[in-house]
Hints:
- The protein is mostly helical.
- The protein is built from seven helices and two strands.
- A hairpin with a 2-residue loop joins strand 1 and strand 2 (about 15).
- The chain is globular and about 50 Å long.
Amino acid sequence: MNTIFQNFKRTGVTKPLAYALYIGFFAGLFWSCIRMISYYCNFTSEPVSFLIRNWLSNEQITSGFGQTLGSLSFIAFSIVASLMYMWFFRNLIGPWPGLWYGLGWWGILFGLGPLFGFTHIQTGVGFTLALTDLCLFVVWGLFIGYSIAFEFTDEASREPAKAS
Length: 164
């Protein structure tokens, strides 16, 4: 495990592209599993395969094949989102920018999603279902944003250790 982290750093400086790919992959992997669990527990009405709804039939969306492809698409989406965060917002400090980043992605995907076929227009959806999707995206954005921001703005970790 230590060699994985050594690949991101050379002489104490993090390689931004490799680190963003790493964070995006694990954000997508972890949060797609959480989305899948929340879908099967009926906390949300959108399966993890909502991003590829245009290319799958209604039967395939909720099948094991569709969920696997959905998880892979969510991982790819998370990698792209983490690269965007790294390019545009990596110097912002604290957890709030990541929280707003996730809220923005939720707004884009569920606000514009019905226009592009990603999500269905949900009228009459219960408060719990809508709140679950909102919270999942907020915490997903917080995970990406705070991980990247902490790595690129934490100056205390870059100070040399004092010899005793």
